[in-house]
Specification:
Chain lengths: 257, 340
Amino acid sequence: MNTFLKDTGHLLIRHLRTTLRLPIWIAVTLIQPVIWLTIYGQLFRSVVEIPGFGAASYIQFLTPGVVIMTALFGSAWSGMGLIEDLTDGVMDRMLATPVSRAALISARVFHAALTVAVQSVIILLFGMALGARITGGLPGFLAILLLGSLLGAGMSALSNGLALVTRREETLIAVINFFGLPLTFLSTAFMAAELMPGWIRALARANPVNWAVIASRDAMLGQAWGGVAKAALMLAGFMLVSVWIGTQAFRAYRKSS
Amino acid sequence: MPNPTHPPVPDPGQAAIVCENLEKTYRNGVKALSGVSFSVKPGEIFGLLGPNGAGKSTTVRILATLTRPDGGKASVAGCDVMRDPAGVRLRVGYVAQASGVDKWATGKENLVLQAHLMRVPAADIGARVGKLLEWVNLSDAAGRIVKTYSGGMKRRLDLAMGLIHQPAVLFLDEPTTGLDPETRAALWRDLKRLRQERNLAVLLTTHYLEEADHLCDRLAIVDHGKVVVEGTPADLKAGISGDTVALEVAGTGEDAARMAAFLRPLEGVLEALAEGNRVLARVRLGATAMPALITAVERAGINVISSTLSRPTLDDVYLRHTGRRFQGVGAAGDERKAGS
């Protein structure tokens, strides 16, 4: 356990360092959510006037949705770094050391979760500047970070698992594009559940992205804390299952090489 | 429990690497190894020579615990690769064909991370990293991101990373592929220095005859997943046919024939043939035989106007044992690609 934690720490530092050395990545990461908040906030402003939408302002409604959407997409790309390591021979070099095998996955998962937390802070602050109110206060703020990070951790584990199985950037890109937008739109990120067709509402219930969006919105408003806790538990379960899948993919990779 | 950070030094009499009948078939049906056996002593540079696809990389990957054999046994630095892979990993350095350095980290950061992963005691890391950077002549570039390094610098960093934990055995998979001749020569110098300074066993794969000849104490020629012959480069070449001394005479073909008859019974001469106004003599040791032959012939009253000495090359060895010339084979593609 001790070596697992130490190795995870060393590898996490490596991933964070890499992230900080790609200024373009930081810029995109910071600017993209800002653009989403601005454009979507303007574009869909009047949907709150539809009877039954049930939110005071669209920016209030949208901010938690953009936080979770960013968490989803940001961490879904996590596997790309692993494919780069496979191609560069870095993975083989590490597998020839006594490094904890589990740490190779967990460091990436932690990295994704941390990145999501940082991005979420920025989006929330910008949302507040645009008029969103976090009536849930600091606990609400922190709960949103937690929910986003749990979703991000799970998604990154799946992404890394997929990277190990396919070992091709093209496949990973195709899969993320195929699932990313449906997962977002089959949730209440942009549209209130009350106004969704019945079948979409049914699908959304099984969608971890939707669990995170609903709970974030409640945490923002400081309401339904029981539901927020339940969603956090469900997302933690989703993360554990994803990490398990990622670890199995790792085993399969090692057997096939 | 033994302290994992200080692997015991292998007993000097013990082989650094032993493999017996290693077999490996990849999932796609490619049979990479069909019974590879050889052993390497501490302090020895041992080469696996063969074209791409011969099974060299697969052998090294099995010994570095990156892939499992389907049959046979292997142990490295006294640890069985199947039963004690963790023990093997602590005692070997592995430098892969694809450079395994992190291009977004600096040279120093790469070494420090590798030291941690290799369980080097934290207190020793700073000093070892500094020394190794100096050793591979990268001290000035230590703080630069590896992405800015040249191919030769990356390779030197790779080598340093393979040595950070002071392994007993170093694996080098095609260490000089893609390097310019100057960098290649520098790396050869480094490896020879390394063997001298640290009594390290080095297993290297290569598809350069020249490299195998120049660098290896012993080598095995691998073909179609099997070791076809093994020995020191000199022994392998000596096993071929001895050296060839060609002497050109001043006179006619008759003189050449007379000289050939004269040379045949001399000591050290295996065979002598007249060819025009030349005599081709196969001798055991050309370097010492040539002056002796010339003196003997001159004494017999035959004038020699030119002489050349040619030695059998590893290419001749390869031809003899595989039935093909080495050059031009192995165009069938990369071994790892075929295997993965």
